[in-house]
């Protein structure tokens, strides 16, 4: 619900404009009236239903753009050599511009041309998406083998155990690591941070102005239905983002500039980088198309006069069961309008800035509001961390491809969130839950969510045994069996071309680290398999297979996702009742600003720091970092057990915090209910004694 700001005489002026808009007449700048050219028929842009359709599509694309970066975060890390902490900060920058401007939306309200401002914001979002894809076009092609200047079928020679490898590696390392290269890397990362800020700034007016515009000009009975449709369509955006990522990341990053000799990678190779930039181009085009109609909507349109037909039928059925419900609804809406009218009077900017801190402090002093917001901060922190790094976690923990991880999340997690929100709304509606029962529902939802996360600590794959890096107890120590086997090889430290010894399930960073001197390609009908032979560090001399070792527990990813989705449903059940606690827990004149304060706190305390916190926790589990020009770049290998315990443990911590806040809310509401019951009983007994005292003395004496 957006604030309605303006003088009291605005409604009288609005009726004249509504009449002109309905008759197809507009005012010219000179004050004269001219008829519309379309035979006095109302335009489609004067229909609130058409605005609802346009705005649903616009918010769908907006959430798809913001969610697409999360779906391709591990790919961006590999392409530009970023740590998880830096990529988490990149995701958080979307909220920086949004948070800085969102508070003033409550001030502007209907003073501006809301549809045009929404269109301008959408154009900024489209430009931000285009800017996000720019680093791909201004950077050099991706070299998955750093020891080779170009990716050709002969690049394997640089990874073999040859005496000339050290000379070649040092020469290439000195030529590639220059001040220009480092400056170019910083410029590319800076462009992405700027694009994320632009995406946040452009998204500021879209949702608040769209919701208030629908609420202002829709029929009072239809407004909740329209907003429900809007939110339902919008919630499909993140799922579509992960689905888009799952499809596009199957394509090679340089699909527009493939090398002449082709590439020798598959999507299962840990060095594979998908075409992450293509999704931003597609989303930018969709956003530009969705923004076009907003420049043709009027500033004010005639208020919808008719109630939807099927809604009338539903009310007619309900009226048979209840006593005169139609008399209650007209009384509720004027009170609602009066309350909204008192939210934000006709203030200047200076007056608004002076009033806002007082309203903020008054709202934060309310214990129910503060505790519910803190619980939502914990849930939003959990959601932000999961949405950002769950694809990467699934990739590393279960050794699956980035596209498959995104498809799993898009097909299961996003629909689970929608189902949970709908279920929570239905329970509140059907059971007519009071605030105390809403808090009890929230408490039960978070309790089940917490219990469902306990098995996740034990569902995962053990860490691969990496020669010279990770050793599993009870296994042979790889390189220690053949001391000095790598000395004649002089393997480059920054090369990464993993091979696997299938007999011992030991993985080596490169064929050179396994002491291999020869390469064999076995052609098959559908694909070719690469092996390396004459390996001095492998028992029997090999052969070893190109690529990482296969995981023995990749099948656990489906049970893991099943429990995650059930937890998402339970957590999202609390969405609607927690909002009801906020709306019923503050003064009527503070409701709109309270909701604005709530979203501001969620951004500042959850959506901004949570990706950075999760990224930092993931970085602490890394056991082998890639080095680029002497600086730490992307992580090559993680300790799987430590990664699972810290990622799931961080989620468990936020769930516990939310559960504790809802428990305190329930305790406070029960205490308030007892106090109110005592007051009512005492005052009622006193009034009964005063009223019956002079007349019923004999009865009192007998009692």
TrEMBL record:
GO CC annotation: apical plasma membrane; basolateral plasma membrane
Molecular function as annotated in GO: bile acid transmembrane transporter activity; sodium-independent organic anion transmembrane transporter activity
Protein's UniProt keywords contain Acetylation: no
Cellular location(s): Cell membrane
Keywords, alphabetical: Cell membrane, Disulfide bond, Ion transport, Membrane, Transmembrane, Transmembrane helix, Transport
One GO term of the biological process aspect: monoatomic ion transport
Tree of life domain: Eukaryota
Domain Kazal-like: 479-539
Gene3D superfamilies assigned to the protein according to its UniProt record, in alphabetical order: MFS general substrate transporter like domains
Protein topology in the membrane: Multi-pass membrane protein
Region (Disordered): 1-36
Segments crossing the lipid bilayer: 89-110, 117-138, 183-204, 225-253, 273-297, 368-390, 402-428, 440-460, 556-581, 593-610, 647-669
Sequence similarity: Belongs to the organo anion transporter (TC 2.A.60) family.
NCBIfam families assigned to the protein according to its UniProt record, in alphabetical order: oat (TIGR00805)
Protein name from the UniProt record: Solute carrier organic anion transporter family member
The species this protein was found in: Pteropus vampyrus
């Amino acid at each position: 619900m957006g604030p309605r700001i303006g003088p009291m005489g605005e409604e009288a002026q609005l009726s004249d404009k509504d009449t002109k808009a309905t008759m197809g007449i507009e005012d010219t700048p000179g004050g004269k009236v001219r008829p519309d050219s379309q035979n006095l028929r109302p335009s489609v842009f004067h229909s609130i239903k058409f605005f609802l359709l346009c705005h649903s599509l616009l918010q769908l694309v907006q959430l798809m753009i913001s969610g697409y970066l999360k779906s391709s975060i591990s790919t961006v890390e590999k392409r530009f050599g970023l740590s998880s902490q830096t990529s988490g900060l990149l995701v958080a920058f979307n909220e920086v511009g949004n948070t800085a401007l969102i508070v003033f939306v409550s001030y502007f309200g209907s003073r501006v041309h809301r549809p045009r401002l929404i269109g301008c914001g959408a154009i900024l979002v489209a430009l931000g998406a285009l800017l996000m894809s720019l680093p791909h076009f201004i950077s050099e092609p991706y070299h998955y083998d750093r020891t080779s200047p170009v990716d050709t079928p002969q690049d394997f020679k640089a990874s073999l155990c040859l005496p000339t490898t050290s000379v070649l590696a040092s020469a290439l390392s000195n030529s590639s690591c220059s001040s220009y290269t480092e400056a170019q890397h910083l410029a590319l990362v800076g462009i992405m941070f700027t694009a994320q800020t632009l995406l946040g700034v452009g998204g500021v007016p879209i949702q608040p102005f769209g919701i208030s515009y629908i609420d202002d000009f829709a029929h009072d009975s239809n407004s909740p239905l329209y907003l429900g449709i809007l939110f339902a369509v919008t919630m499909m955006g993140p799922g579509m983002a992960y689905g888009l990522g799952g499809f596009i990341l199957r394509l090679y990053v340089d699909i527009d500039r493939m090398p002449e000799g082709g590439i020798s990678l598959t999507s299962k190779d840990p060095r594979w980088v998908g075409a992450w930039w293509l999704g931003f181009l597609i989303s930018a085009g969709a956003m530009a198309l969705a923004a076009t109609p907003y420049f043709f909507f009027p500033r004010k349109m005639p208020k919808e006069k008719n109630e939807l037909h099927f809604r009338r039928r539903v009310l007619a059925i309900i009226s048979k069961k209840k006593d005169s419900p139609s008399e209650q609804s007209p009384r509720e809406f004027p009170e609602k309008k009066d309350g909204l009218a008192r939210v934000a009077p006709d203030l200047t900017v200076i007056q608004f800035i002076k009033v806002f801190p007082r309203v903020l402090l008054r709202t934060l002093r309310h214990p129910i509001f503060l505790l519910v917001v803190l619980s939502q901060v914990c849930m939003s922190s959990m959601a932000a961390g999961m949405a950002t790094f769950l694809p990467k976690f699934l990739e590393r923990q279960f050794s699956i491809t980035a596209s498959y991880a995104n498809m799993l999340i898009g097909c299961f997690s996003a629909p689970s969130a929608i189902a949970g929100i709908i279920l929570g709304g239905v329970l509140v509606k059907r059971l007519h839950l009071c605030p105390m029962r809403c808090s009890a529902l929230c408490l039960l939802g978070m309790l089940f969510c917490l219990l469902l996360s306990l098995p996740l600590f034990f569902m995962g794959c053990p860490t691969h045994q990496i020669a010279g890096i990770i050793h599993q107890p009870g296994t042979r120590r790889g390189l220690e069996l053949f001391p000095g086997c790598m000395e004649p090889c002089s393997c480059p430290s920054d090369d990464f071309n993993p091979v696997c010894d299938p007999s011992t399930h030991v993985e080596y960073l490169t064929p050179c680290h396994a002491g291999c001197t020869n390469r064999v390609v076995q052609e098959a009908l559908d694909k070719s398999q690469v092996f390396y032979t004459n390996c001095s560090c492998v028992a029997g001399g090999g052969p070893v297979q190109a690529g990482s070792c296969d995981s023995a527990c990749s099948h656990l990813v489906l049970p893991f996702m099943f429990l995650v989705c059930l937890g998402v449903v339970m957590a999202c059940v609390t969405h609607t009742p927690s909002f009801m606690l906020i709306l019923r827990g503050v003064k009527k004149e503070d409701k709109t600003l309270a909701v604005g304060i709530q979203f501001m706190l969620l951004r500042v305390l959850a959506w901004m720091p949570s990706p950075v916190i999760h990224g930092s926790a993931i970085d602490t589990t890394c056991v082998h970092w890639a080095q680029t020009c002497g600086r730490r770049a992307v992580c090559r290998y993680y300790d799987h057990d430590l990664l699972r315990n810290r990622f799931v443990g961080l989620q468990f911590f936020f769930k516990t915090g939310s559960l504790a806040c809802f428990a305190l809310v329930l305790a406070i509401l029960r205490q308030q209910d007892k106090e109110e019951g005592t007051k009512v009983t005492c005052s009622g007994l006193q009034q009964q004694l005063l009223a019956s005292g002079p007349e019923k003395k004999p009865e009192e004496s007998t009692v």
